[in-house]
Design brief:
Elements (H helix, E strand, L loop, with lengths): L2 H24 L6 H32 L1
Length: 65
């Protein structure tokens, strides 16, 4: 397995972990709700970077052809 495939698998696992955490964070008491907004902000940034990463990889692969 190459590094790119390993990275894709790692990203998938991280997104699954994130999705598992969201319901738990939402159950926190009101004084901890700021954690949810911080968590969602970080999650959104990760999604954005992951999409950008996919674009870059796609462009690189197209250039190799």
């Amino acid at each position: 397995m190459n590094e790119l495939d390993e990275l894709k698998i790692t990203l998938k696992e991280l997104f699954e972990q994130r999705d598992d955490l969201i319901p738990e964070i939402e159950k926190l008491s009101p004084e901890h709700q700021d954690l949810m907004s911080k968590f969602k902000s970080i999650s959104d940034r990760i999604v954005h970077k992951q999409l950008r990463f996919q674009e870059v990889v796609s462009n690189i692969l197209q250039e190799k052809e």
